[in-house]
Design brief:
With 141 residues, the protein is of the alpha+beta class. Helix content is 30%, strand content 29%. The strands form two sheets. The chain has a three-stranded antiparallel beta sheet with strand order 1-2-3, with no helix packed on it. A three-stranded mixed beta sheet has the order 4-5-6.
Length: 141
């Protein structure tokens, strides 16, 4: 496989450390969220994952809509990603994902068709398929 893009991010100090990309554009302090016993006040890995998945899935929606000759602008697509972390039942932890998708200017049936196709092409969806429970809801306006 030939990668179309490669990035590199270095994490130091675990959940209470930092993350920094090789180009310096991402440079953040991390904090353990309050519900997990931390002080909060900084971002955390789940927020970073949620943001990445939402943005990537949104772009997949736009790509699919345009390949189906639907007039959907970037602003017509909204993805809200919720990422949860909890015990996996065998001493470790697992993630869960919920995507709330809104597409403006198409009917419900078309929106659901676009979402299903986007879930098949989105790199995040393909990476987590079979590993993370992903639920989706689709709405139109």
């Amino acid at each position: 496989m030939t990668d179309l893009y490669i990035t590199q991010v270095t994490a130091r100090g675990g959940r209470q450390g930092t993350v920094r990309s090789d180009d310096g554009l991402l440079d953040l302090r991390l904090a353990l969220p309050g519900p997990l016993g931390g002080k909060g006040g900084s971002t955390n890995p789940e927020q970073l994952f949620a943001g990445g998945y939402a943005a990537c899935f949104g772009n997949a929606l736009i790509h699919v809509a345009r390949t189906k000759n639907r007039k959907v602008s970037d602003e017509d697509v909204e993805v809200i990603a919720q990422v949860g972390v909890g015990p996996n039942g065998s001493g470790g932890f697992k993630l869960s994902v919920s995507l709330a998708i809104t597409i403006v200017g198409v009917d419900q049936s078309t929106a659901e068709e676009i979402v299903a196709a986007a879930h098949a092409v989105c790199p995040y969806s393909n990476a987590v398929r079979g590993n993370i429970d992903v639920s989706m809801s689709t709405a139109t306006r």
